[in-house]
């Protein structure tokens, strides 16, 4: 039993439908030749589009002469994709899952010390805040509000603080980052890995240094800053990793960007962020 995905794009829906049906027919023939079965009931497709440009026709996608169900959201590799790529469905699922985890923390905190509670936070909460955050973490800030509320609730439980106590000093005392700073740390770590060729080869051209774009010398090119490309849309462009990554990277001092290793980079950046928290 295995799971697979196919991706096609076209501005013309009729052409897209024809291409999908033609390719799926080939897939069906290949599966038949290799004696493989496909669960039609578990097969679906999703049409990605802007919320402002809704499809003017429905697609009829078939495989084995059976219609495939169209869905508004689908999960792939642990991340839920919605048709508008707002990541709201994924964040709602995270909120539901982490709310239960926070409830567990509130019960066990009376039987373990604070060090164990922080370990539980890193084991049961933090991985869900960082997995795939380079994508879903760049959504609209309002969509992240509830998730941040849940994170603050966990921090207050770990520190045995009052429900309405100011959370920023608590984050600092526990040496933990707030949600937005977790997102920033993960994005900047990705950019650092890119700049040191620590990512798979498919990401080699993902960003560009300013010096490789401008033929003349500038202050940014001398500082090894990244080129911030212009975007066509505010809804997707400004919230993309290609735009946000270079913008955040260029705001860092060279004392951080010139770190000798990823571990040192993450530690230095985290300490820099924590130092800005109120006491």
Describe it for me?
The protein has 279 residues and is mainly α. Helix content is 50%, strand content 6%. It contains 13 helices and 6 strands. The strands form 3 sheets. Strands 1-4 form a two-stranded parallel sheet. Strands 2-3 form a two-stranded antiparallel ribbon. Strands 5-6 form a two-stranded antiparallel ribbon. Helix 8 (179-195) packs antiparallel against helix 13 (262-274). The longest helix has 21 residues, at 13-33. The N and C termini lie far apart (53 Å).
Helix-strand blueprint:
Blueprint: H1 13-33, E1 44-45, E2 62-63, E3 66-67, E4 69-70, E5 73-76, E6 79-82, H2 88-108, H3 114-124, H4 126-130, H5 133-136, H6 141-158, H7 168-174, H8 179-195, H9 210-213, H10 219-222, H11 241-250, H12 254-257, H13 262-274
Parallel strand pairs: 1-4
Antiparallel strand pairs: 2-3, 5-6
Helix pairs in contact: 2-3, 2-6, 8-11, 8-13
Order of SSEs, N→C?
HEEEEEEHHHHHHHHHHHH
Total helix count? 13
Mean pLDDT across residues = 89
State the helical fraction: 40-55%
How are the strands ordered across the major sheet?
Answer: 1-4
Question: What distance separates the N and C termini?
Answer: 53 Å
Please count the beta strands (DSSP E, at least 2 residues each).
6
Strand content: 5-15%
Helix/strand class: mainly alpha
Question: How would you describe the oligomerization state of the chains in this entry?
Answer: single chain
Radius of gyration, whole Å: 23 Å
The backbone outline, from C-alpha atoms, is: globular
The largest sheet is: 2 strands, parallel
Poorly predicted ranges (pLDDT <50, ≥5 residues)? none
